[in-house]
Amino acid sequence: MTDIFDITNETAIDLEKYLPDFEAIFAHVKTVLAITEPLELSLTFVNPATQVELNQQYRNKDYVADVLTFPLEDESPIDFGKVLGIRVLGDIFICPQKAIEQAEAYHHSLRRELAFLFTHGMLHILGYDHIEPADEEVMFGLQRKILDDLQITRNLIQ
């Protein structure tokens, strides 16, 4: 069985040129983390109103989050890997409008910001977190490695 990586853009922002980055990040995360089994992951780009609705409904937060992750592995009593032969990770939602604001605020490209948010979300959905300083060091180190390896750096102008 092969990976299933679905990308949906529900916004009016043209993200087509960034799709190869998301595919490359998906594959490189698997390589860096030595994940050999097939994965299923959904990445959806949504407008701010939808992102607020998701944040309110599932996290009790009332703001536009840049990225939201909804892991299925932690929530499901079914081991989809055994049943379907694929590890079903869940869903990542990114708000491109928020990414545009953050790219401007951090003085780097939209490409870099979207790549960072997807990498961050994918690591979260795989169980990484940054609540404790030691965990933050591991997760942020992985983010840097993945993006640096793919040459998607902070000073990228595209």
UniProtKB/TrEMBL annotation:
<comment type="similarity">
    <text>Belongs to the endoribonuclease YbeY family.</text>
</comment>
<keyword id="KW-0378">Hydrolase</keyword>
<keyword id="KW-0690">Ribosome biogenesis</keyword>
<dbReference type="GO" id="GO:0005737">
    <property type="term" value="C:cytoplasm"/>
</dbReference>
<feature type="binding site">
    <location>
        <position position="130"/>
    </location>
    <ligand>
        <name>Zn(2+)</name>
    </ligand>
</feature>
<dbReference type="InterPro" id="IPR002036">
    <property type="entry name" value="YbeY"/>
</dbReference>
<protein>
    <recommendedName>
        <fullName>Endoribonuclease YbeY</fullName>
        <ecNumber>3.1.-.-</ecNumber>
    </recommendedName>
</protein>
<dbReference type="GO" id="GO:0004222">
    <property type="term" value="F:metalloendopeptidase activity"/>
</dbReference>
<feature type="binding site">
    <location>
        <position position="124"/>
    </location>
    <ligand>
        <name>Zn(2+)</name>
    </ligand>
</feature>
<keyword id="KW-0963">Cytoplasm</keyword>
<dbReference type="InterPro" id="IPR020549">
    <property type="entry name" value="YbeY_CS"/>
</dbReference>
<dbReference type="Pfam" id="PF02130">
    <property type="entry name" value="YbeY"/>
</dbReference>
<comment type="function">
    <text>Single strand-specific metallo-endoribonuclease involved in late-stage 70S ribosome quality control and in maturation of the 3' terminus of the 16S rRNA.</text>
</comment>
<keyword id="KW-0645">Protease</keyword>
<keyword id="KW-0540">Nuclease</keyword>
<keyword id="KW-0698">rRNA processing</keyword>
<dbReference type="GO" id="GO:0008270">
    <property type="term" value="F:zinc ion binding"/>
</dbReference>
<dbReference type="GO" id="GO:0004521">
    <property type="term" value="F:RNA endonuclease activity"/>
</dbReference>
<dbReference type="GO" id="GO:0006364">
    <property type="term" value="P:rRNA processing"/>
</dbReference>
<dbReference type="GO" id="GO:0006508">
    <property type="term" value="P:proteolysis"/>
</dbReference>
<keyword id="KW-0479">Metal-binding</keyword>
<keyword id="KW-0255">Endonuclease</keyword>
<keyword id="KW-0482">Metalloprotease</keyword>
<dbReference type="InterPro" id="IPR023091">
    <property type="entry name" value="MetalPrtase_cat_dom_sf_prd"/>
</dbReference>
<keyword id="KW-0862">Zinc</keyword>
<feature type="binding site">
    <location>
        <position position="120"/>
    </location>
    <ligand>
        <name>Zn(2+)</name>
    </ligand>
</feature>
